């Protein structure tokens, strides 16, 4: 029987920072997922914006008894002290990103509230078109909000991701009159405090620096 389960949504943001910040963000995502696994917290990547250097931002859903404790260890500014691995002559050695808690989302809508449609996934320029109907469009009947997912190979995986993205869109919809949800997510993409970091990592191996306050 499940007891004291918690759900927390976190956003990792580089605040449109340079390549070094994106490299750091990719490490942080991996480290956070590893800590979640070690502590029995289910972690799911809801959305991710990646680039050739690493990652610009990501939204994570944490579920489990220790989800809140894990989230609190990461929330705030994070610092990476390292000479740039992509710009050797760059004088800067301090790179910052942020981890922010997002507003709670509404419960995942039940499948009875959703109309599913399947269609074929397409490749660029019409090439490599998937011959099976693996793409999924999910429409929330009451609001008319819909999402289309074709990023996964199987229809089942696309359906699962569509449900999650639909819940996120419903959260934005419910907060639409004040734009609280949308503003919170958008503004954090551009706001990272530089200084007083929650956690600090050093060097190309990302060794964590002990907290001087502890």
From TrEMBL:
Span list, region Disordered: 194-214
Q: Name one Pfam family in it.
A: RF-1
Look up the domain of life of the source: Bacteria
- Stretches of Basic and acidic residues bias are at 205-214
List, alphabetically, the InterPro entries matched: Pep_chain_release_fac_I (IPR000352), Pep_chain_release_fac_I_sf (IPR045853), PrfH (IPR017509), Prokaryotic/Mito_RF (IPR050057)
Q: Locate the Prokaryotic-type class I peptide chain release factors domain: which residues?
A: 120-136
> What Gene Ontology terms describe what this protein does at the molecular function level?
translation release factor activity
Q: Which NCBIfam families match?
A: release_prfH
Its family?
Belongs to the prokaryotic/mitochondrial release factor family.
What is the protein named?
A: Peptide chain release factor H
Source species? Morococcus cerebrosus
